[in-house]
Design goal:
The chain is 27% helix and 26% strand. By secondary structure, the protein is an alpha/beta fold. It folds into 2 domains: 3-56 and 350-382, Urease, subunit C, domain 1; 59-345, TIM Barrel, CATH 3.20.20. Strands 1, 2, 3, 4, 5, 19, 20 and 21 form an 8-stranded mixed sheet that branches. The protein binds fe (iii) ion. Fe (iii) ion binds next to loops.
Length: 384
């Protein structure tokens, strides 16, 4: 007798979608994957998918600033818990709380809040921080505060890393000292990603040589493709190995651009993110953001100057958008929703549905709406 998630359509990278039941171990991992008809009378059925719900490896959102009225920059346990609970309802089982550009003191406070959440992690897991800013190019600031922006500092990252482990740093790779910084981060096991950057293609190549592995919110606040200087947008299409984060909310990237990128880049290197902010899960209105505010209208979140300020998209919605726009099979999309980020960030215990991996799983209906979300084999979110 064992615990099982019964009669679901299994969605995992590299395998055709098929109808199965999934058994779970007592220690929260995935056990056997069996034919749905092989369920035994004594099995404890945690959830019955009725042959129709799709079971996905839990989504991994590596770029999220906030949700439901809270932001990591509130720097409280309550803020991180609120984000973690909201993410879970989107089908996300692991997320990286992501900083905004701020002073080092503020960042240390954010790290303390994320560190406090790591002690219980009662909703989605939050194993690492993503540091976005202040090592950004003021000319590509977007909604981030240029007054804090400065060249990268290894010491600052290591100071944060002591409080709460950092696994991803987004920076403008053309800044003074950036190449040396990227090398040092690689040596420490921290992944670097080009962001808010006006880098030329040559500067991108130098950064890649130093160890750069990702492009942050591809196309947003980065050097555009020009026919005599392809910039970072061109780099994302030319370099088959670099991982590209995409905000597929149909606002940060229009539907045509989403189709263009999926046509030219493999799902093996695309990582779906929300870049969600405190206004997500709340609806239209005005919300504070540092010294300014964000105005949310018709699904778009902008600062008063008009720049987009992160998204209010939910993770399951960006997965649905990709499915509807690209004709990619679900098992390919699962690479971009879970497996790639796990591989890139060294989270080798999750990201696919295979025996021995963590039982972090998301059950979706035909509309990509989460019906149940499991973390370590426990139901932590249930729609009903
Ligand atoms: Fe950003």
């Amino acid at each position: 007798m064992g615990k099982i998630i019964a009669d679901v359509q299994l969605v995992t990278p590299g395998e055709a979608v098929r109808r199965v039941s999934v058994s779970l171990t007592d220690t929260g991992e995935i056990g056997d994957i069996i034919e749905a008809s092989d369920t035994k009378a004594g099995d404890e059925i945690l959830f019955d998918g009725g042959g129709e719900l799709t079971l996905w490896p839990g989504f991994i959102d590596i770029h999220t600033h906030g949700a439901k009225g809270f932001d990591l920059s509130n720097a409280t346990l309550e803020a991180v818990e609120t984000m973690a609970e909201a993410k879970l309802a989107e089908g996300v089982t692991t997320f990286l709380p992501t900083t905004w550009t701020a002073s080092q003191e503020q960042k240390l406070n954010m790290a303390r809040a994320a560190g406090a959440y790591q002690k219980n992690q009662r909703f989605a897991r939050a194993p690492y921080l993503h540091i976005e800013g202040p090592y950004l190019n003021p000319d590509q600031a977007g909604a981030q505060d240029p007054s804090y922006m400065r060249p990268p500092s290894v010491d600052e990252i290591l100071e944060i890393h002591e409080i709460c482990p950092v696994r991803l740093v987004s920076l403008a790779v053309e800044l003074e000292g950036a190449l040396e910084f990227i090398r040092k981060m690689s040596d420490t096991g921290i992944v670097t990603s080009a962001a808010h950057s006006a880098a030329t293609f040559a500067e991108f190549q130098a950064a890649r040589k130093a160890g750069l592995q990702h492009l942050t919110h591809y196309c947003n606040q980065m050097s555009r493709l020009h026919h005599r200087e392809v910039g970072l947008v061109g780099a994302g299409l030319l370099d088959d190995e670099v991982y590209i984060e995409m905000i597929c909310d149909k606002i940060h990237l229009c539907p045509d651009m989403i189709q263009l990128v999926f046509k030219h880049r493999s799902c093996d290197r695309i990582i779906l993110i929300t870049d969600s902010i405190a206004a997500s899960h709340l609806g239209d209105g005005e919300y504070p953001l540092g010294d300014t505010k964000i105005i949310v209208r018709d699904g778009e979140a902008r600062i008063p100057e008009g720049n987009l300020a992160g998204s209010i998209a939910k993770y399951n919605e960006v997965v649905r958008n990709v499915y509807e726009l690209t004709n990619q099979p679900l098992s390919e999309i699962a690479k971009s929703s879970s497996a790639n980020q796990a591989r890139s960030l060294g989270l080798h215990d999750r990201g696919t549905i295979q025996e021995g991996k963590l039982a972090d799983l998301t059950l979706l209906d035909a509309d990509f709406s989460p019906q149940a979300v499991f973390v370590g084999g426990e139901i932590r979110y249930s729609k009903n």
